[in-house]
Write a structure and sequence with these properties.
heterodimer; A: 249 residues; mainly alpha; globular; B: 56 residues
């Protein structure tokens, strides 16, 4: 079955798709989250070095992954937006930004709470931590810039530049632990070798990561609907929506 | 289940503040974001409805 990409590039069609998808994605996020917390807190053993303190990993690693993935997704939509000038691209980028900013903040927050007991400090100007802080500022910069420009299409284009140029920071974050001698440890899970973690710890972390994926997709579907309604409110199709016209569907 | 009591669970081997401080703030942030998104949706709908009334 071929997915009709260009069909769903039209805000009208994507609105209908997002309306159908978000409740399922939200339910999936809750189910995976509960399963992940169960595996992480009830089944996974304590760590040989860090005792129970390592359990911060079940949020720290997934939120950090999401903070990077969401920025790449914003860059992807921005490239599409600048190349094809599609209306949906700017709205998708904007719908992603607050969630990405939240995950970047949570990555720093949970990292500080992990650093204090294990390293003896909340913060160091280490390459990994510093590049993640820059990512957080890039999100804030994107949000500030796009909300400061009144003409939404111009704001989208200006924001797209930040999203694309800033994406260079994502591989820097990812490889920072290899390129520089950092206090932050290297990756425990990578695509090129088997993970250096106990099975149950790994499963808890993966379930939480999948839950945050589903959460992100759900909230982005939900938020992009508000953006579409706001921007397209003068169009006939929005006026004809039952939730707008008040007509029974 | 690897905990013998709730107090042991909340204590997290002495790391309670750090572990629960991470979990709680994550949950709070997500809850707040969901609340914000619902507010935004309500506003967007109201805006579109006003537009519909003016046109009709």
């Amino acid at each position: 079955m071929a997915i009709r990409w260009f069909y769903y590039a039209a805000p009208q069609n994507f609105y209908a798709l997002a309306t159908r998808l978000w409740p399922w994605l939200a339910a999936l996020a809750v189910a995976l989250g509960l399963a992940g917390l169960w595996v992480g807190f009830a089944l996974a053993p304590e760590d040989a070095q860090q005792g129970e303190g390592y359990r911060i990993i079940f949020v720290h690693v997934p939120v950090s992954w999401m903070s990077m993935i969401i920025y790449l997704a914003m860059a992807f939509w921005s490239i599409l937006g600048l190349t094809f000038n599609t209306r949906l691209s700017g709205m998708m980028t904007r719908a992603l930004a607050p969630t990405g900013a939240m995950f970047a903040f949570l990555s720093l927050w949970t990292g500080a709470l992990w650093g204090k007991p294990m390293w003896g400090t909340w913060w160091v100007w280490d390459a990994r931590l510093t590049s993640e802080l820059i990512l957080f500022f890039l999100y804030l910069g994107y949000i500030a810039l796009t909300s400061a420009i009144d003409d939404v299409r111009r704001a989208d284009r200006a924001g797209a530049l930040i999203a694309i140029v800033g994406a260079i920071n994502v591989p820097i974050i990812y490889f920072s632990v290899k390129w520089w001698n950092t206090l932050h440890q290297g990756a425990s899970v990578s695509l090129t070798r088997s993970p250096s973690m106990a099975q149950l710890m790994l499963w808890g972390m993966l379930l939480m990561a999948l839950s945050f994926w589903a959460y992100t997709l759900a909230i982005v579907c939900y938020r992009v609907r508000s953006l579409i309604l706001e921007r397209e409110r003068f169009t006939a199709w929005v006026q004809a929506l039952p939730e707008v016209s008040g007509a029974k569907p | 289940m690897r905990w013998e009591s709730w107090s042991q669970f909340w204590d997290m081997g002495g790391y309670g503040l750090y572990v629960w401080g991470s979990m709680a703030v994550t949950a709070l942030c997500m809850g707040f974001e969901v609340w914000l998104a619902r507010q935004a949706q309500r506003q967007a709908l109201a805006l579109a409805q006003t537009e519909a009334e003016e046109l009709s």
